Amino acid sequence: MRPTLALALLLAPIAVAFAADDPWKLDDKFKAAKPEDLKDAPSVPAPKGAISLFDGKDFSQWVKKDGKGEVKWTLKGGAMEGVKGHGDIITREKFGGTFKLHVEFRVPYEPNGAGQGRGNSGVYVQGRYEVQVLDSYGLKSGKNDCGAIYGVAAPKENACKAPTVWQTYDIEFTAPKYENGKKTEPAKMTVSHNGIKIHDAVPIPVDNTTSGLGGDPATPGPILLQDHGHPVQYRNIWLLPIKNG
Ligand code: MG
Asked: Per residue in 18-35, pLDDT tens?
């Protein structure tokens, strides 16, 4: 047999397997621990006074990470989906002080991936502090798993739903405080994941987590959604200012 034909025959079943994969559908190999892990977390409408950052219609509130480029992530049935290689996106507006950020997301089913290679994205508050988005379903969560403040704190428990299922983050954030150019209080974060409190006023000792925007931590920053090469989806994102910084 000619080598090219042999190679084609060898690769054909692999190509078919990939083509048949729908990352938004679980197959019968997936085992959920509890039936509710397969049920979407309820979508939460923006309360009075909240700023809608994404309502499923357009990217009017967003730009590329450089602060000016047009966002070309995909819009799909009221959600946005990250496009591999396009890069991170940030809100036009910057936020400081204390605020509550609500984010709905879902990670694809990538059974051939593992570790940081399944449904990786992230929600960076002020562009600097990442709440990790990942398929960590059923794992013992570490500091780099879903719900972790990346590299700083593991979630108190693994509150993940199954991949393909809609999940929620409710993040209450207080920016670090400065006096005469000196940090007097670190940033703090309380996070609920699918309604379960996974961080309770956790102080963040660093000024930037891995791959964050950095910049002067005494100044406001945007919300950043990470492109880590996986088709993670987001919908219904809003921010409620609580106290000016
Ligand atoms: Mg990430």
From this structure: 444 799 999 999 999 999
